[in-house]
Amino acid sequence: MGIFSKKNPPDDFKSLREKMVRAQIEARGIRSERVLQAMREMPRHLFVKESLRDEAYGDHPLPIGEGQTISQPYMVALMTELLGLEGNEKVLEIGTGSGYQSAILARLAARVITIERIRQLSESAKAVLDFLKISNVDFRVGDGTLGLEEEAPFDGIIVTAGSPAVPETYKSQLAEGGRMVIPVGDGFTQTLFKFRKRGDKWEKERFTGCVFVKLIGKYGWRGDESL
Ligand code: SAM
Fold first, then answer.
1. What's the burial of 113, exposed, middle or buried (CB within 10 Å: 0-12/13-18/19+)?
2. CA nearest to 25, candidates 57, 73, 60, 71
3. Torsion on CA atoms 131, 137, 143, 149, rounded to nearest 10
4. What is the pLDDT of residue 224?
5. Cα-to-centroid distance, 161 and ligand 1 (Å)
6. pTM of the complete model beyond 0.85
7. Is-contact 189 125, C-beta < 8 A?
8. pLDDT of residue 48
9. Residue 136's closest CA among 115, 155, 111, 114?
10. Does the Cβ of 44 fall within 6 Å of ligand 1?
């Protein structure tokens, strides 16, 4: 079955999207009009399996296969807002997953590079973005805990998997004034942090508690690194 079927024509979900933005995102304090607009317009249902499309605008994560998830809409909005994007930034995303967060970032920044450790997820995410004609996202497969030295520095780094600590690689790959959002904690629950680089100092802010799948790699959790 293609991305659209007769059962799910593309504009079927517009009112659900608007409701999602009002009830889940604005109501919880997200104020950036650019973020709200991107989320009003991005067809989130295309980033999940056809059998889950009716749930795509619910207030929760959803499975995307390979034991991974597409994050809760509010979490996507919050992390995106914290990056403070104005349109000309280069952003590194760790954990492509479904590609939904990458697509939102692509609307708000000049260029996005997204790294995923599971090739199959990266390929299906790329297929959705190609379908949506989003062309400013560069897909890489590999261990995102290493960052991407050859493309550094980044104005924003967003880590969409839970890490035991902040990998030093990210700190050294962030531009002056750059922002990083990352969930840090144990393997089950984390706290969302935002870091901002100011000279040789780091401003650190703590946000909400959250639950992400594990960041698996050299500077994350140990796991099956053969994927
Ligand atoms: N941003 C995604 C979205 O919008 O669908 C959600 C990402 S999901 C919560 C976390 C993803 O991080 C998973 O797809 C997982 O395979 C990936 N991941 C975990 N460790 C990684 C690593 N070291 N490098 C790259 N991707 C990793």
1. buried
2. 73
3. 160
4. 62
5. 5
6. yes
7. no
8. 98
9. 111
10. no
For residue 125, give the ligand 1 atom closest to its CA. Answer: 5
Hey, what domains does the chain have and what are their CATH numbers? Answer: 10-210 (3.40.50.150)
Residue 198: both structure tokens together? 């100011």
Sign of CA pseudo-dihedral 24, 26, 95, 111: positive
* Catalytic positions: 71
139: its two tokens = 């897909």
For residues 114 and 138, give the distance between their C-alpha atoms in angstroms, rounded to a whole number: 6
118 in contact with ligand 1, CB cutoff 6 A:
yes
Q: What is the pLDDT of residue 44?
A: 98
> Where would I find the H helices in the chain?
14-20, 33-41, 73-83, 100-108, 119-131, 168-172
Angstrom distance (rounded) from CA 118 to CA 142: 8
pLDDT single digits (tens) 32-42: 999 999 999 99
| pLDDT at 154 > cutoff 70 | yes
Instruction: State in Å, rounded, how far the first CA of the chain is from the last one.
Output: 27
Residue 10 has pLDDT above 80, yes or no: no
Tokens of 23: 């009830």
| Chain-centre distance for alpha carbon 141 | 15
